[in-house]
């Protein structure tokens, strides 16, 4: 049932059902796993101990994987995937409510792994062949394997069409050569969505997307790339004559740019629920801190300077959340929706608005959260310190905030023409 149960876009009965089941899953399945992980003294899901190679401790990774498998078995892992391939078929406005609930209730715990993220299925991979669906998509959705999206290169970030990784035909197969960098889940992925040049000089039709088996000859995992997130998940991938069968082409040859943008735009739109959920969690923690921390014999919540910080946090969360719901409702009304191929010309502006508004609002929220907590907010590994670093990180991946402003301006000027 998808009937809306309030005036908010996407607040449907099935969202209510999902969040109730997710809350029960956190208590029954995730909490015991978090206790087991804590007993091992290897860090937490978002503050893991790293191994000698700088990668996420194996015990933390396996705890995340166990949550993914259990979540898939409980029917909670893939609400964002199309019903036609076995997912929940939730709309983007529905997913904002789901993501907001998951991030607020999970905080920085293992519960975040229970909702398919960059390691799971995504809108781009839905375009795979029937053969690849059986081999890769269905195991991904079952939580049996994990994926990585390999688009960025060491000298190529936002300028996707400048990438140097190539794919050439060899009979019916494709041979891939190149190096990808800044890849999340590079160290652990079982299958990698690799974007490569198949027709140089063809503009947006010059790229194609391939599903690459991480056990293929010529495929190697490169160095760890430590970032400010310090999560032990980011690294390089090398492809040296990697052979890929034709059924592992995603979509059609030449669809790579559109498919890469579908993946990137999905991550941009996820900012709405993620930042609203985490932002609300930080605000709740700041309120608690302000009411219980005393200075001069009175709670610091009585100080106007602290009250203004709390008010500004609330204003940022409220405004960004409302903008995200409105933009995604408008996207859903466009022909083809947010991930259409081709994408409706009004869509890029709306998606960029979601990203830039949330990236910048959440950074301000995280900054004020640290300030309200004072010295305790500066402790390495505290939720405030971790989310402050994460908030700063958000302004770069999936297109910098400056690139988003370019897209917004192009959309405005195109509308006037």
From TrEMBL:
Instruction: Give the protein family.
Output: Belongs to the acyl-CoA dehydrogenase family.
Alphabetically, the GO molecular function entries are: acyl-CoA dehydrogenase activity; flavin adenine dinucleotide binding
Q: Which CDD domains match?
A: ACAD
Q: Where is the Acyl-CoA dehydrogenase/oxidase C-terminal domain?
A: 254-413
Coiled-coil residue spans: none
Which Pfam families does the record cross-reference, listed alphabetically?
Acyl-CoA_dh_1, Acyl-CoA_dh_M, Acyl-CoA_dh_N
Instruction: Set out the biological process GO terms recorded for this chain's protein.
Output: fatty acid beta-oxidation using acyl-CoA dehydrogenase
GO CC, alphabetical: cytoplasm
InterPro entries in the record, alphabetically? Answer: Acyl-CoA_dehydrogenase (IPR050741), Acyl-CoA_Oxase/DH_mid-dom (IPR006091), Acyl-CoA_Oxase/DH_mid-dom_sf (IPR046373), AcylCo_DH-like_C (IPR036250), AcylCo_DH/oxidase_C (IPR009075), AcylCoA_DH/ox_N (IPR013786), AcylCoA_DH/ox_N_sf (IPR037069), AcylCoA_DH/oxidase_NM_dom_sf (IPR009100)
Keyword annotations for this protein, in alphabetical order, are:
FAD, Flavoprotein, Oxidoreductase
UniProt-listed PANTHER family: MEDIUM-CHAIN SPECIFIC ACYL-COA DEHYDROGENASE, MITOCHONDRIAL, MEDIUM-CHAIN SPECIFIC ACYL-COA DEHYDROGENASE, MITOCHONDRIAL-RELATED
- Looking at the record, the residues that make up the Acyl-CoA oxidase/dehydrogenase middle domain are 148-242
- Residue intervals of the Acyl-CoA dehydrogenase/oxidase N-terminal domain: 57-144
What protein name does the entry list? Alkylation response protein AidB-like acyl-CoA dehydrogenase
Q: Which cofactor does it need?
A: FAD
């Amino acid at each position: 049932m998808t009937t809306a149960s309030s005036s908010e876009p996407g607040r449907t009965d099935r969202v209510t059902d999902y969040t109730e089941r997710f809350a029960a899953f956190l208590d029954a399945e995730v909490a015991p796993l978090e206790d087991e992980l804590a007993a091992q003294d290897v860090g937490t899901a978002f503050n893991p101990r790293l191994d000698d190679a700088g990668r996420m401790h194996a015990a933390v990774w396996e705890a995340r994987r166990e949550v993914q498998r259990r979540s898939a078995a409980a029917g909670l892992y893939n609400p964002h995937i199309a019903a036609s391939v076995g997912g929940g078929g939730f709309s983007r406005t529905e997913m904002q409510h789901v993501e907001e609930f998951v991030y607020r209730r999970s905080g920085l715990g293992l519960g975040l792994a229970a909702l398919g993220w960059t390691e799971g299925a995504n809108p781009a991979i839905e375009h795979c062949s029937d053969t690849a669906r059986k081999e890769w998509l269905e195991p991904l959705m079952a939580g049996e394997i994990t994926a990585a999206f390999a688009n960025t290169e060491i000298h190529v970030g936002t300028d996707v069409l400048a990438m140097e990784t190539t794919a050439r035909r060899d009979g019916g197969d494709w041979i891939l050569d190149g190096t990808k960098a800044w890849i999340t889940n590079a160290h652990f992925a079982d299958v990698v969505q690799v974007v490569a040049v198949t027709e140089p000089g063809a503009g947006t039709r010059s790229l194609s997307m391939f599903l690459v088996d991480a056990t293929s000859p010529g495929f190697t995992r490169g160095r760890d790339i430590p970032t400010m997130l310090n999560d032990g998940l980011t690294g390089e991938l090398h492809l040296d004559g990697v052979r890929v069968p034709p059924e592992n082409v995603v979509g059609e040859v030449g669809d790579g740019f559109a498919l890469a943008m579908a993946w990137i735009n999905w991550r941009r739109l996820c900012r709405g629920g993620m930042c609203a959920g985490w932002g609300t969690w930080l605000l709740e923690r700041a309120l608690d801190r302000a009411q219980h921390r005393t200075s001069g014999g009175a709670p610091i919540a009585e100080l106007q300077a602290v009250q203004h910080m709390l008010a500004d946090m609330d204003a940022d969360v409220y405004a960004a959340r409302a903008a995200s719901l409105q933009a995604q409702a408008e996207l859903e009304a466009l022909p083809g929706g947010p991930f259409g191929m081709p994408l409706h010309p009004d869509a890029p502006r709306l998606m960029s608005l979601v990203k830039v508004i949330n990236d910048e609002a959440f950074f301000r929220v995280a900054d004020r959260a640290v300030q309200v907590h004072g010295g305790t907010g500066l402790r390495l590994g505290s939720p405030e310190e971790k989310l402050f670093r994460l908030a700063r990180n958000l302004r770069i991946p999936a297109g910098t905030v400056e690139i988003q402003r370019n897209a917004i301006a192009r959309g405005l000027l195109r509308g006037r023409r």
